[in-house]
From TrEMBL:
The chain crosses the membrane at residues 48-69. InterPro entries: C-type_lectin-like, C-type_lectin-like/link_sf, C-type_lectin/snaclec_domain, C-type_lectin_CS, CD209-like_CTLD, CTDL_fold. It comes from Erpetoichthys calabaricus (Rope fish). PROSITE patterns: C_TYPE_LECTIN_1, C_TYPE_LECTIN_2. Pfam families: Lectin_C (PF00059). SMART domains: CLECT. The keyword Membrane applies. Residues 83-208 form the C-type lectin domain. This is C-type lectin domain family 4 member E-like. PANTHER family: MANNOSE, PHOSPHOLIPASE, LECTIN RECEPTOR RELATED. The lineage of its organism: Eukaryota, Metazoa, Chordata, Craniata, Vertebrata. The keyword Transmembrane helix applies. One of its GO terms (molecular function) is carbohydrate binding.
């Protein structure tokens, strides 16, 4: 091969290389670049991590809230009023003391037992809201019908705190006509005190029962 032939072959080779070097790289629409798959999978992983973190945080917050809210709450039946661990019902139907106690027992309780000054004030306020012009009396679960002068509650516990109407000399066991005396107690919402009255008189009354424990 002579010199001219070598030159021609070399020229053609250089032209082929030059044209291929400047030729644009064309990719089909569905043909992916090498780094695209890795980039997309990394993004999905990060999103999943963020979502999982949010779910964990939300779960932690809910557990804290439920731990705070989950406690014992004292609940009462409909139309009963709650005061601490007791439920009270003010019954406006007038009955004798024994009839009132029977009614309270049928409702799952007893006539009201006033153990503290706070309970006394609470029931007085409720009774005062229901009283008429002259109707101030509500039976409570206190009597001395077993032995005169020894007042005890319907659950047989002795009387420790008293709220007698002292200015009215209560209890005075006042007797009139053929009555046996005054062996049952009422809460007098007018004087915010107790009075002893005949057990056969008909008055409104207050029932009580234990509140129901509800866990939420």
């Amino acid at each position: 091969m002579d010199t001219s032939e070598h030159y021609t072959a070399l020229h053609e080779f250089n032209e082929e290389i030059g044209s291929s070097a400047t030729r644009p790289i064309i990719k089909m629409p569905n043909e992916k670049l090498p780094g695209m798959a890795y980039s997309k999978s990394t993004k999905c992983y990060r999103m999943a991590t963020i979502l999982l973190t949010l779910v964990c945080c939300l779960s932690l917050v809910m557990n804290i809230m439920l731990g705070t809210l989950c406690h014992l709450c004292q609940a009462c039946p409909i139309n009963w009023i709650q005061h601490k661990k007791k439920c009270f019902s003010f019954v406006t139907e007038r009955k004798t003391w024994s009839e009132s106690e029977t009614t309270c027992e049928n409702l799952g309780g007893t006539l009201a037992i006033l153990e503290t000054q706070e309970e006394h004030d609470f029931l007085h306020e409720g009774a005062r809201n229901l009283t008429g012009t002259w109707d101030f009396h509500f039976w409570i679960g206190l009597s001395d019908s077993v032995k005169e002068g020894e007042w005890q509650w319907v659950d047989k516990t002795p009387l420790n705190r008293t709220y007698w109407h002292l200015t009215g000399n209560e209890p005075n066991n006042f007797k009139v006509d053929d009555l046996e005396g005054e062996d049952c107690a009422v809460l007098n919402s007018h004087f915010k005190a107790w009075s002893d009255v005949p057990c056969d008189f008909a008055y409104k009354f207050i029932c009580q029962k234990k509140s129901i424990e509800v866990r939420f």
